[in-house]
Amino acid sequence: MIHITSPVFLREPAAIQYGIPAVFPQPERPLHLEIGCGTGDFVVELAQRSPEINFLAIDIFNKGCSKTCNKTTAAGLENIRVMRTEARYLLTRLLPAESLDAIYVNCPDPWPKKRHRYRRLVNRDFFPLLQHALIPGGEFFFVTDFGDYAEQVAELLPTLNEFDNQLDSPYATDFPDYPVSKYMKRFLDLGQNLHYIHLQKKLDALPGDPPAPTSSRGFRINWEEREAAKSP
Ligand SMILES: C[S@@+](CC[C@H](N)C(=O)[O-])C[C@H]1O[C@@H](n2cnc3c(N)ncnc32)[C@H](O)[C@@H]1O
Questions:
Q1: What is the tens place of the pLDDT at every residue in 93-137?
Q2: Which of 29, 147, 165, 231 has the lowest tally of Cβ within 10 angstroms?
Q3: Which residues are CB-neighbours of 24 under 8 A, at least 6 positions away?
């Protein structure tokens, strides 16, 4: 396993001790989150475009975290921190309510088999977590190469009372100003369509009280083991 020593890398004990906004040189800035940053191309481009925003990039795999740390350092950026953590765990356990201005999920694992669909990250159960973590007016961006995943999320839109769709249609296939991640580039190079969804949390929406995630919902980390390890 890669041992990450980069100062850009944020370990969970430090996140808990100091609180996530406080680990940035300018903690008062807005905070954006990229879930599943992979090799970091997307977050590095976005952070270059928006130096006035802090970006937290997370991935459950060390390799992606390490690459994202290296790209951040190579680009000389001070507004990115990278954490190895699981999205639902971060959103419910590590981040205060209403602490994020935007959340990005690009090309998440599509789980194409019908019997595995429940493992998809962006599903009905995910939206209460977004509602909890986003500030009122905070934005959610989702891109998938997989048409069936886009349809599944699009079908949920009319039921999401706390969010407004920012597009004229459930999803768009043309979204020119959005930075391109490694996977997005791969699919574009193959001539495939990407599907883009952009929602905004309503200004009068409350944070709600999302249920703690459970391991039965396709978590890739062993939730019980992790909790047990923390107990004295
Ligand atoms: C298909 S890759 C896409 C990577 C990148 N977003 C891109 O577009 O190039 C999906 C990434 O999400 C990460 N991932 C999957 N489930 C996750 C979760 N529950 N929490 C955090 N990261 C997750 C994977 O480790 C992987 O790096």
A1: 999 999 999 999 999 999 999 999 999 999 999 999 999 999 999
A2: 231
A3: 31, 54, 78, 79, 81
The predicted-structure confidence for 58-91, as pLDDT tens digits, reads as follows: 999 999 999 999 999 999 999 999 999 999 999 9
CATH code of 9-230, in short, is 3.40.50.150
Q: Beta strand pairing status for 195-201 and 163-165?
A: antiparallel
SS3 call for 25: coil
**pTM score of the predicted model:** 0.93
Q: What atom in ligand 1 is closest to the CA of residue 61?
A: 25
* Residue indicated by tokens 């991935």: 59
Q: Give the pLDDT confidence score for residue 220 in this predicted structure.
A: 46
Q: Residue by residue, what is the 3-state secondary structure of 103-139?
A: EEEECCCCCCCHHHHHHCCCCHHHHHHHHHHEEEEEE
Residues flanking ligand 1, CB < 6 Å: 35-36, 38, 58-61, 64, 86-87, 106-109, 121, 181-184
pLDDT in tens, 48-59: 999 999 999 999
109 is known as an active-site residue: yes
- Which residues, 6 or more positions from 132, have their beta carbon under 8 angstroms from its beta carbon? 91, 92, 97, 98, 207, 208, 209, 210
Give the pair of three-digit tokens for residue 20: 């996530």
The number of the ligand 1 atom at minimal distance from the alpha carbon of 184 is 8
Q: Using N-to-C axis directions, what is the helix angle for 41-49 and 62-74, rounded to 10°? A: 30
Look-up of token digits 């001790």: 17
